[in-house]
Each structure stands twice: as C-alpha cells, then as structure tokens.
What does this fold into?
Amino acid sequence: MLRLFKVLCLTLIMAFILQACSLSLPFDLEGKVPITGADEVVELPEEPVQQEEAPVIEEAQPEEPAVEAEAEEPEPVEEEEPEEPPPPPPAPQLMPGEAILIDAQTVKDCYSGGSLVAGEPIVVGTGCDVWRLNFIERPFDPSRVDYNPNLDIVRQELGYDDDFYYARLMVDMKEGMQPDLGFSYGVELDLDVDGDGDVLIYVNGPEFMEDEWSRERVLVWQDLNDDVGGATPVEKDEAPTESDGYEFIYFESGYGDDPDAAWARISPTYPSAVEFAFKKYLVEKEDSFMWWMWASMEPYDPHMFDYVDRFEKEEKYFIDNSCRWIMHAPPNANLPNSCPVFKAAPTPGVGPCVCTWSRQQGLVCDCP
It folds into this structure.
C-alpha cells in the first residue's frame, strides 16, 4: 500500500513538471517578446546598461608656497669713506721763551669779586659795565648772584722779546685756574688806535693747557676790511650793523702761513693766569697799538664782533673784557676806553688825579 502511494505521488510530480514545460514564456532567451495575434516578433531595444561612474578623485596637488611680493631692493648707498684726519701741522721752528712783561704795561681791571657777599647781588663798580661803550664787566649771571671767578679779569700785562709779544691776563682764582671748564680767553689789538679791533688772538677751551707753550686751539683772526665796530667804533650802533666782524683767519692750531704765529699756556708762575705769545710782525708795522683782554664762558664768534653791536645788554653774561692800554706810547686817558690814568695833582703834596675818558665828557680827572 505504501509502495503504491509513493508511485502515485511520483506520477503526480512528473505530470506537474511536464505541464510546466509546455507553457509559453513571455520572452525567450534572446530577448524577443511575442505579440498576441501576430506572427512577428518585436525585438525590444536593448537598454544600455548604465554603469555607475566611479567618482573621480582628484589628486591633491601639492600647495605651492606663497610667493611673497619681491621687496624692492634698496638702492645701494655709497658708504662715505671716513675723512682722513688732516696731516699734523708743521713742526714749530721757533718757540716762545719765558714771558717778558713790562711794569708800565701792567694794568688792573675792575674786580667784581671784591664786592662778593654770599647770596647777595654783586655791586659792579661805577663805569665798569657800560654796554653801549663796549665796557663789559659781567663774570656772573643776570641776577649778579652766580659769580664765576674764572671769568673775572683782575689784571693784564704785556711785554716782548726779540721775536714775540707776550700778554698775560689774571683772573680771580686764588687757588688757580680751572682749565677743565673749557672757557675762552683772548687778547684784542687796535693797530691804528682808532677804537676798533684789528687782530683777535684767543684760545678756545684751554682744557688741554698746562704750563708748556702750545699751539692747539689757538687762533688768530684779522679784520682786513676794517669794519669791526660798525659805524661807530667803541659805541653800540643804533642801526643794525653790516659789519662781518673778523673775517679772515690767519692761524689755527699750527696751520697757516706761519706755524709759530701764536701760542698759549697757563702761567707756570701764576696758576690763575693765561699767557699768550704772538709774533711781533703781526703788529710791528705800527708805531704803537692799543690792547685789551677777554674772558668768556662761551667760545668766541669772531664774525659777531663787536658784541655790543650784535646783542642787547640783557643777552650776554658770563663775559668780561678789560679796559684798554697803549703800547709804545705814553698813557693817554683821551683814548677810547682807556684804563684810568694817574696824573699829578695840580696842588703840590696832594695825591695823584685819576683820569678816565668818556665819549660824552672827554677826559675826566678825579683829583683829591
């Protein structure tokens, strides 16, 4: 019975298979689809198989370094070659000797330090500081309290030997000069005795100076066009001056036509004095000449002489000049800005008269 059932089942399975094989497929293996009621077979177009494109992967390009804007090259600067120092001045051929000074050429000057009281304004002597007449006595500041003894000329002297004139100015420094302060000292010469300077000899900042003669920073200026002092020599000009002062430099620190023309030193005998030596030919063409001394905190400006023509009296302090004296001639109080001259009194047995000159009054004598 079981065997018969297996046979029956197998027969049914086979029948189903055969029936399935006899059914028409809607398309054959070549893609041809039969259309009902027609003998033709329509070929279906082949649809292209769209393949998905693989994403394009761009290769990372190496980053180019940022190009900086080319900096403009600076124009080449020509380096200035350092200036070669000037050759040393010619060796001296003739040096000054010991200063020979003449008693008759020794004159005292106004002494501001004599009235010095600590904290009080200095009392300037009558006639010592008259700006409009080129009498300058200002070794102090505008208050007249700050006094500098290095600038207060108290005595001046002149002399000569066969080759040189010697000039000495002494200041109120009893313990000796302070040359490290760099002040300026000088001597001015009036060769034709007409009231205005013709030659200016000075040393600027004698901090180098010792008691040996030296040419360093010693200068000689000349006024060849004779206009120092402007329209009214000795007096202050009312109108602006057209003078160019001392315009010609004849000698500087050993340079010039004559390397031995002028010298300076601190006196080996008087530590509070500055001494000058200058060749006699600078003045010997004249029979006589006037001379006076200068001291200044600031270096001199030769083009600005006379100072009284260039500045107002309120503008210049810490400066001093001396009264004037004459060489190779008898003292004469009638000369412009002459130092006081002592004359015999008209009454026998009475002390001498002291005579001074003023442009307004002429010769004025004070007799006892």
About this structure: The helical segments are 2-22, 307-310. Residues 92 and 260 are 6 Å apart (CA to CA). Confidence is low (pLDDT under 50) at residues 23-42.
